[in-house]
Design goal:
225 residues, 9 helices, binds pyridoxal-5'-phosphate, alpha/beta, 8-stranded parallel beta sheet
Length: 225
C-alpha cells in the first residue's frame, strides 16, 4: 500500500511544470487532508461549503482553496469568505450573487466557468454553444475575474473515452482566448480526475483535480460528484 505522502510525491514528480495539482478532499478525514498538505499539495479542492469551513478552520491560509462542487445561492456568502477560486460557476445568476457578496467584503473572486462538455442532462455546467455569451455577461461583473474553464466530462467508461470531451473543451478555451474579451483572462483549464488526468494534461489541462490518486479509494460515496 502506498502512503498519502508517496502518492503526492509521485504525482508532483509526474506532472509537467505549469500544471497545478488540486487535492479533491471531499469526505476525507482531516488527518488525511493535513497529510497531503504536509506532503506538498498547495491547493485543496472542496465540493461542499460546510465541509470546507470545517477544514479551513484548522488549516487556514497555508494552502489555497478551490470550490469544485456545485454552488447554491444560499451558500455564496460563506463560500466567498473562504475560497480563493470558484471553479464551478455555471450560470450568470450565481455569478451575480458571487459578485454581490464579494462586493460586500471588497474581494475580487477568480472564477472558472464550468462547461458541460458531455451535454449530460443531469450534470451542471454551461453547454458549449452557450459559453461565450455567458462568459461575456459574467466578465462585466466588477468583483469577479473570469480566468478560464473547468469541465468534468462523462465519468463512465475507459479513461480514453474522456479525451474527446477534453479536446472539445480545450478548443472552446482557445476560441474564447483568441477573442480577447475585455476583462477575461483565459489562463486556467481545469480538467482531469484520477482516471483521466494524464489524458487531460496531454490535451492541455493546467489544473488537475485528484482525489483517489492521492488519498486512496473513498470509503463513503455520496454519489454527488
Ligand atoms: C471528487 C472530484 C474529483 C476527484 O475525483 P477522483 O476520481 O477521486 O480523482 C475531481 N473533481 C471533482 C469536481 C470532484 O467532485
Amino acid at each position: 500500500m502506498q502512503t498519502i505522502e508517496q502518492n503526492v510525491a509521485r504525482v508532483l514528480g509526474e506532472l509537467p511544470a505549469g500544471v497545478q495539482l488540486v487535492a479533491a478532499a471531499k469526505d476525507r478525514p482531516l488527518a488525511e487532508i493535513m497529510a497531503v498538505v504536509g506532503a506538498g499539495v498547495a491547493t485543496i479542492g472542496e465540493n461542499y461549503v460546510q465541509e470546507a469551513e470545517r477544514v479551513y478552520a484548522v488549516i487556514g491560509h497555508k494552502v489555497k482553496w478551490h470550490l469544485i462542487g456545485h454552488l447554491q445561492k444560499n451558500k455564496v456568502k460563506k463560500a466567498v469568505a473562504i475560497f480563493d477560486m470558484i471553479e464551478t460557476v455555471d450560470s450568470v445568476e450565481i455569478a451575480v450573487e458571487i459578485d454581490k457578496r464579494c462586493g460586500e467584503i471588497g474581494k475580487i473572486m477568480p472564477v472558472l466557468i464550468e462547461v458541460n462538455s458531455g451535454r449530460e442532462k443531469q450534470k451542471a455546467g454551461v453547454l458549449p454553444e452557450e459559453l461565450e455569451p455567458v462568459v461575456r455577461a459574467i466578465s462585466s461583473l466588477a468583483h469577479i475575474r473570469v480566468m478560464g474553464l473547468m469541465t468534468m466530462g462523462p465519468r463512465s467508461g475507459q479513461p480514453e473515452d474522456a479525451r474527446p470531451y477534453f479536446v472539445a473543451t480545450k478548443n472552446i478555451f482557445d476560441k474564447i482566448k483568441q477573442s480577447n474579451l475585455p476583462d477575461v483572462e483565459m489562463r486556467y483549464l481545469s480538467m482531469g480526475m484520477t482516471n483521466s488526468y494524464r489524458i487531460a494534461v496531454e490535451e492541455g489541462a493546467n489544473i488537475v483535480r485528484l482525489g483517489d490518486r492521492l488519498f486512496g479509494p473513498r470509503k463513503i460515496d455520496k454519489g454527488e460528484d
